[in-house]
Amino acid sequence: MAGILAWFWNERFWLPHNVTWADLKNTEEATFPQAEDLYLAFPLAFCIFMVRLIFERFVAKPCAIALNIQANGPQIAQPNAILEKVFTAITKHPDEKRLEGLSKQLDWDVRSIQRWFRQRRNQEKPSTLTRFCESMWRFSFYLYVFTYGVRFLKKTPWLWNTRHCWYNYPYQPLTTDLHYYYILELSFYWSLMFSQFTDIKRKDFGIMFLHHFVSVLLITFSYVNNMARAGTLILCLHDSADALLEAAKMANYAKFQKMCDLLFLMFAMVFITTRLGIFPLWVLNTTLFESWEIVGPFPSWWVFNLLLLLIQGLNCFWSYLIVKIACKAVSKGKVSKDDRSDIESSSDEEDLEPPGKNPHTTTTTNGTGGTNGYLLTGPCSMDD
């Protein structure tokens, strides 16, 4: 184990040439980031999760009820033992061959069976009230942490001149505000990593999990090798659009369509400007070029920048989705359903008719009429 630890904490990987871990030990004159500080993030992540549960129960839920957001879920599928057995034990998405077999067995037409499976899948989705509470929690946290980040950074020299991120590197002392900011962000991302398995399931679960994982790696990496100054710029920049997205979702769930559209437009402008403009031209410029000029590359420097380029790839993917939704909004006159909808639905989804009948009338299900169920859930949380 000692050999493995010595290999993992190899100074020639983590630190610039001629710098050792002994040089970065805490003294009476200065405090530096220590790897063991990061253990604090785990109990704090649990505390954040518990605060979230309390917030959603005693703050967000009363707000939702005051806005007349009900806890009604999607339409309940008609009870059927045979279809339920197929749904729970075999597949939730039967292929054409299985649909035809079930049609003959039940004497139902294929369209009715398809509709039953859609309604049964939607039945497991959370209610609008649950989605509103989740969005309100995220909105509150993102607004707080972004406000704190701005207040902290405006007093720092590296916000106004990014070359200060690398002057005297890595002998840059750790301040109390910076330590709090970093540990809070890391704890939140750890809580997202775990709560993602219990939160509302969305189609880009894998991409969001990758984003959270890379974010945890970046925060951990930049803290250990004391690239925290550049890290604070990255964190604050990526937090800037997240509160707007969650506010747009809350407006959507409350059926305030005009407010939803306005907030989404603001979110799209801020997201694309910060992620495709400011991030590569300002942040990547300092981490790739200014740091090369002032400090020079070393092994962990390459890993850090590769992770930032991976984040930028995800930013490009989400920007494409946002532009796609914006184009649909222009053509339809409102923000419409996108690839990350909370509830599966389609324009031709109807109430289940009695077996054997072909449906002729269309009825909207909960969450598909008006605006509920139509707003993107977006690249939230990138937190973003």
Record field, number of beta strands: 0
Main β-sheet: number of strands, strand sense, barrel status?
Answer: none
How many structurally independent domains? Answer: 2
Shape, per Cα inertia axes: elongated
| Radius of gyration of CA atoms, rounded to a whole number | 25 Å
Provide the low-confidence segments as ranges: 336-384
GO biological process, one term: ceramide biosynthetic process
Pathway: Lipid metabolism; sphingolipid metabolism; Sphingolipid metabolism
Protein name: Ceramide synthase 6
Subcellular location: Endoplasmic reticulum membrane; Nucleus
3D structure, described in words:
By secondary structure, this protein is mainly alpha-helical. It folds into two domains: 31-66 and 127-331, no CATH class; 81-124, Homeodomain-like (Arc Repressor Mutant, subunit A). Helices cover 62% and strands 0% of the residues. Residues 336-384 have low confidence and may be disordered. Residues 338-384 are annotated as: Disordered. It is a multi-pass membrane protein.
